[in-house]
Structure formats: C-alpha cells, structure tokens
TrEMBL record:
<dbReference type="Pfam" id="PF17784">
    <property type="entry name" value="Sulfotransfer_4"/>
</dbReference>
<protein>
    <recommendedName>
        <fullName>Sulfotransferase family protein</fullName>
    </recommendedName>
</protein>
<feature type="region of interest" description="Disordered">
    <location>
        <begin position="1"/>
        <end position="29"/>
    </location>
</feature>
<dbReference type="InterPro" id="IPR040632">
    <property type="entry name" value="Sulfotransfer_4"/>
</dbReference>
<dbReference type="InterPro" id="IPR027417">
    <property type="entry name" value="P-loop_NTPase"/>
</dbReference>
Amino acid sequence: MSASSFQPVPSERFQPVPSERDGGRPRPPKVFGLGLTRTGTRSLTAALGVLGFDVVHYPVDGATYRTLLAGSARFPLLESHDGLTDITVVPYYQDLDLAWPGSRFVLTVREEESWLRSCRTHWERPLPDRGDGRDVRLESDLQRFLRAAVYGCHAFHAERFRGVYRRHVAEVARYFADRADDLLVLDVVGGEGYERLAPFLGVPVPDEPFPHLN
C-alpha cells in the first residue's frame, strides 16, 4: 500500500462537530498519528507542533496507563492536548474516531525491509533512564502492554512484525475507504512532509525543513 494511493482533498482547518455523547455540544477535533513504531511518528509529532498542534508522542503517564488497563480510549491527555501519536493510538483509533468526531488521522508508513531493520535495532535497546523524572517501571509496564496489544509479543519477531504491519495498513485503508479527507498516508522516512501534511490539516506550509528525529 503506497502513500500515493490516498489523495486527500485540501480543506479549511477542520471545525468542531457536535457529539451525541456530549449532549450535542461541539468537541474540538483532534489529530492522531496511527503509524506503527519506527515509521516516523516522533518526526510527525514535531512537525505537528510546528503547525500549531500540541500533540503528545507515546504518552507514558500513569493516567494513560490506568485508562488503557480499564479498557477505555478516553485518554485524559486529550482534554488538554490536540492529539496523540505512536502505538498508543493503534489499537484504539476507531474508538477515538467515534469519541472525537471530525478528527484527522495520519498513518505514517515506511518501506518494509527498512522498517524491520529499524525495529530490530530499536527492540534490542534497553529503556533509557532519561533523568527527566519519568517512572521507568511504569514506562516498562506500559511498553509491554502496548507491544502485546499491537504486535502480539514483546520481543522482536520479524515475520510476525511484517504481518502486523501489512494488516494494520490494510485495515486502516478499509476503515477510511470512503473518507479520504480524514486520513493522510505519509511516508516521512521516504521524504514526504509539510507539502502534504499542511494542506491536509488546512494550515499553511511552513518555510522550514520537515523535522527528522530518530
């Protein structure tokens, strides 16, 4: 599935849509990155920040973990942020679509063999102690939870990951099949960037390079 299969229609910056869950009151739409690990989700998050969207990459806070353990996709962070990215979103994107009508979704993709090599390297690295006050044990528990939910395993397994990648891209394509204006498939690693992302979100293309973070 190539990114070029999806050609979203440029639009004005999206507007709140009334939600029946909240008595018809408008809820501001969100932006969600539903790409798998090592597909450029961190770069996407930085780019969304440049475009004016306060989006959280792979949240590892206690409230998020408790929410997931309770089987809910009502992430507390979404009350104060514009969206989420990375595998935190992957198992719950359909729930988030229902909870936040009018939201936009960005599926980051990557050439398959390159992606598998990057995943292997990433999985072999231990969790770092960043010295920023994060609870390393909490982060480890959340990592195990999400890896099991998304990949069905905790350790790297190339063929399993390959199947997960292909199924995820295909399932997202089917889910948004009649909603091309709500989904952007973006190959950040392959060089795509603001020229596609900014029009999709209805904001100007910034005069600066697209961020590429590891």
